[in-house]
Design a protein that fits this description.
This protein is mostly helical. It has one domain. The chain has ten helices and no strands. The protein is globular, with a radius of gyration of 18 Å.
């Protein structure tokens, strides 16, 4: 029975990932969703909309929802594929939440939680230059663009188990796919804003494109 029940953990991890605390906090403070205000559902968007305290809070919560399911899977010594799917699931849930018609955030903080549980030392060391580059360029995605590849290289040198490395590669791929989707949405949003600025009257109050 336990052998079958363990396969529910990736499902739980996915639905945990679909919980987007950033949007709930933004709705609480502004009465509108992050999407309606032209921002993503993650920590960076929350920071820009309602301030750094809320942004940091969302970052911690999103990291935890990636970290905790993997921690449970590792602690219980579950089937390797259960662990692999559990590592990927919260990031997939954050990026493509079922209840939001698969329109979520970009998944960086959840991914950081996953990799920090899989291989703490390589990714702590890898994320440091990622954070520095992100601060210099003032763009949060650079944390992942730099930190994950550096962490993966360090994982190879530090003999991290291949299962953990392939799970991290899968997580990185999900981030990359979502990033390309986000750039497409950002382009549509820019066009929508340009049209809105050029209009006059009530029609300018139309809704932004779906994320």
């Amino acid at each position: 029975m336990l052998r079958l029940a363990q396969w529910l953990l990736p499902v739980v991890a996915y639905f945990l990932g679909t919980v987007l605390p950033g949007d709930y906090l933004v709705r609480w403070r502004t009465g509108r969703s992050s999407r309606d205000l032209g921002e993503n559902y993650g920590a960076a968007g929350t920071w820009r909309l309602i301030g750094p305290v809320y942004g940091v809070t969302v970052a911690i919560l999103d990291i935890l929802k990636g970290f905790l399911p993997v921690f449970v899977a590792r602690s219980l010594d579950l089937h390797p594929w259960v662990l692999w799917l559990t590592a990927v699931a919260p990031v997939a849930g954050h990026n493509w939440p079922l209840q939001r018609h698969f329109q979520g955030g970009r998944g960086l903080a959840a991914a950081i939680g996953v990799v920090l549980c899989l291989a703490p030392l390589p990714f702590i060391l890898g994320l440091i230059p990622g954070v520095l580059v992100a601060l210099r360029r003032r763009r949060t995605p650079w944390v992942g663009f730099v930190g994950l590849p550096v962490g993966l290289l360090l994982s190879l040198f530090m003999h991290v188990p291949p299962l953990f490395i392939t799970a991290t590669l899968a997580v990185a791929l999900l981030l990359l796919i979502r990033q390309f989707q986000w750039y497409a949405v950002a382009e549509r949003l820019a066009r929508w804003r340009a049209r809105r600025a050029s209009r006059r009257g009530p029609s300018a109050g139309s809704q932004p494109p779906v994320f």
